[in-house]
Amino acid sequence: MHDDRWDAVDAYTTGLLQPADPALEAALKDSAVLPNIAVSAPQGQFLHLLARTISARRILEIGTLGGYSAIWMGRALPEGGRLISLELDERRAEVARRNIARAGLDGNVEVRVGPALDSLAQLRADQAEAFDLVFIDADKRNAPEYFSNAVDLSHPGSLIVVDNVVRQGKLIETQSNDPDTDGMRRLIEQMGADRRITPAVIQTVGVKGWDGFALALVLES
Ligand SMILES: C[S@@+](CC[C@H](N)C(=O)[O-])C[C@H]1O[C@@H](n2cnc3c(N)ncnc32)[C@H](O)[C@@H]1O
Predict the structure, then answer these.
(1) Does residue 72 have its Cβ closer than 6 Å to ligand 1?
(2) Which of 27, 78, 94, 125 has the most crowded CB, counting CB atoms within 10 A?
């Protein structure tokens, strides 16, 4: 399902709200060899705004791809802030590292390669300082496990954002035969039952079609 007006509205608003940005444009150009699954420009700007709203100093991203969303969020960091982004694929991580360096963020943004569940276990074993913002945007079937880890690696007041929960409305299909949709269904059920967070889901449309974000404010970790 798609409506050309969704694209036109994205183009209209980004034309007015996002000045030319050579680093982001180059990141998208160099990511053209990768699947076209990064967040859209308005979504990147939204993540940037969220990070600034909560004065995030430590950000965790699960799912790097070419580093587009990492650049948006990395730019929200204050001096000395840090973003760790987890990516399974070494080749994608290399593209991301180049894009991040060109954006001048290599001092603040680190890409770690490996299955995210392993990288998260390592962060927990290292007793990593709590993250203020976690953005979950990797394989959808593992979203519930990523979310549990995100809460554990957070502090009261942290914000967790999960992308692609609505999946063109497939979220409401009880028998989807799609492990990614099932992952998102389990995630929303889990969020509804987790007394350590306050949840919300918001649907979105735009150049990425019909989808949505789940958000959680961490009350207790
Ligand atoms: C939707 S893309 C991320 C897009 C990126 N956040 C952006 O908006 O620019 C998802 C990424 O997660 C990675 N991924 C998939 N399974 C993973 C896993 N088990 N561990 C870590 N990364 C994984 C994929 O290789 C892919 O690059």
Answers:
(1) no
(2) 27
Q: What is the pLDDT of residues 117-131, one digit of tens each?
A: 999 999 999 999 999
Check: CB of residue 107 under 8 Å from CB of residue 81: no
Q: Which domains are assigned to the chain?
A: 4-218 (3.40.50.150)
How close is the Cα of 88 to the center of ligand 1, in Å? 7
3-state helix, strand, coil in the chain (%, to 5): 45, 20, 35
Q: How far apart are the first and last CA of the chain?
A: 38
Our mutation pick for probing the ligand 1 site, out of 33, 69, 86, 87, counting the most ligand atoms within 8 A of Cβ, is: 87
Predicted structure pTM score: 0.98
Alpha carbon distance 9, 42 (integer Å): 10
